[in-house]
Design brief:
Elements lengths: L1 E5 L3 E6 L7 H11 L5 E2 L8 E4 L6 E7 L31 H11 L10 E6 L19 E7 L5 E2 L10 H14 L10 E2 L11
Antiparallel strand pairs: 1-2, 2-6, 3-4, 4-5, 5-7, 6-7, 8-9
Amino acid sequence: SDVCSSDLLLQFCIQNNYLGGGSGAASVQQSLLGGIVPRLTDDGTGGTYKIYNRTKRNVIAMFKPRDEEAFAPNNPRNYIGKPEHDGIRPGTYSTLGASREVAAYLLDHDNFANVPRTAHVHMMHPSFCNPRKDDGSVDVIWKTGSLQEFVNAHDHAGNMSPTQFTVQDCHRIGILDIRIINMDRNDGNILITKTKQRQDRPE
């Protein structure tokens, strides 16, 4: 079954297993109702918003509205176009990225390629890039998009030597990309996390 709740700022219709039985979704909801403002990231081509916890110390999730993707109608970085417009790379289309991110998570069975937990959500907030009415005022609208668990990454693959990656890990990502026909893979969207160094056992 799904978890569905609604209020003035946030509406969720998500799977129970998102962020651990819905607790992550509840944390996002509590943050927004507590006055925490989503913050647009400094880089990227689309609208990606960091959602902080109630203490404002940690990012807990990332929200990507469909209408703010690259070449979508409400893109905040002047990459503006119509829905399903050609994207940044051949084979990508505006307003379809959020659905593809959710599909990638659902198809990553048993966390084979370590796709962060992701869900489709409906959200509303004045800090998003909302359209304007005929009189020039901002029209704060409901937005659909992907809400993804935040991964505290050390770096991305573009800043690392290829020798740091195992063949198995590369194959895991490659197999997933083939399954979902991912046309947007690049070294900037492969996140690197630190792991404890393996210590040799004493003989």
